[in-house]
Write a structure and sequence with these properties.
Layout (H helix, E strand, L loop, with lengths): L2 H14 L5 H13 L3 H6 L7 H15 L4 H5 L1 E4 L2 E4 L12 H10 L5 E5 L5 H9 L4 E6 L2 H13 L5 E4 L10 E6 L14 H6 L13 H9 L4 E10 L5 H10 L3 E7 L5 E8 L10
Parallel strand pairs: 3-4, 3-6, 4-5, 6-7
Antiparallel strand pairs: 1-2, 7-9, 8-9
Helix pairs in contact: 1-2, 1-4, 2-4, 6-7
């Protein structure tokens, strides 16, 4: 089988399995097992695959045909210009989440302390530290296996941070300038309607926001003021239809300057607010 034949064969197999973007997936899998670059492919399309590469390619095509996410097969996902290790114990980083990091980087300054709740692969935590190396970050997650992945990424990117196994704030100590999170926010009843790759392979605990999708936002909004400095910020990724609901939760807990930021598709994606603390709020009491 030549490089060209491999791509064509892979595309047909993945199309038959209903895999979205079958042509691109076929190429990325071939690239993964062979190490072939695009330029080499175009220059030598009739180059024969070795028996080992052909065998490995057929195997990964079968995996993708079962709708196992491409990123879980290759083991990596690009995010904020960095390559993160991923596996089926962590949510695959999405481009939508880059807006959350970008907003965080606008606020972070050297010496600031921040907390990333539900850190998963560590993509938010580590991207913030890579973008503002003199900030001090902590990442937490309820999943020990997810934290092992975050630790691998921390070592790979040579960043210094503390990782804590914690159910949100349960084992968190300290006061922060910024708390940031992409918590589970999909209503339980909607999970069955997700695409196969997400529903069958990504960790449910990283997706399920309970009955109305707002369970974790309620907890974070209620508990975060005890961990924020006066004037500290809370930044949350949200679902496209949760801007008003999450904004109201923050306002009910005393947050001010609550704002919803839209992603590149024009959908609500991030809610951010400032906690005044004791800076003139409630002082009459």
């Amino acid at each position: 089988m030549t490089l060209l034949e491999a791509c064509q064969y892979g595309e047909k197999q993945l199309e038959a399995a209903g895999v979205p973007e079958a042509k691109l997936n076929a190429w990325l899998l071939l690239e993964h097992v062979s190490g072939c670059t695009r330029s080499h492919y175009y220059a030598y399309p009739k180059e024969m695959l070795s028996e080992e590469v052909q065998k490995n390619y057929l195997e990964v095509l079968k995996l993708r045909g079962r709708r196992i996410p491409l990123q879980y097969i290759t083991g990596v996902q690009e995010f904020m210009g960095h390559s993160f290790l991923v596996n089926d114990q962590v949510l695959i980083p999405r481009q939508d989440t880059e807006l959350l990091v970008e907003e965080g980087l606008k606020y972070l300054r050297p010496g600031m302390h921040f907390l990333d709740l539900c850190t998963g692969s560590g993509c938010i935590l580590l991207s913030l530290l890579l973008g503002c190396p003199e900030a001090i970050g902590i990442g937490s997650d309820i999943s020990l296996e997810a934290l092992k992945t975050a630790e691998q990424n921390r070592e790979r990117m040579d960043t210094k941070t503390v990782l804590v196994e914690s159910d949100l704030f349960d084992k968190i100590e300290g006061i922060f300038d910024l708390i940031i999170s992409n918590p589970p926010y999909i209503p339980s009843q909607e999970i069955l309607g997700l695409m196969d790759e997400v529903r069958n392979y990504e960790p449910v605990c990283a997706l399920d926001g309970h009955e109305d999708g707002l369970y974790f936002y309620r907890r974070i909004a209620k508990e975060s003021p005890s961990y924020l400095k006066a004037g500290g910020r809370l930044y949350l990724e949200i679902g496209y239809d949760q801007g008003a609901g999450v904004s109201q939760l923050l306002k009910e807990q005393g947050f001010c300057d609550v704002e919803v930021k839209k992603d590149l598709a024009g959908l609500d994606r991030v809610v951010k607010g400032t906690y005044p603390g004791y800076c003139g709020i409630g002082m009459e009491e």
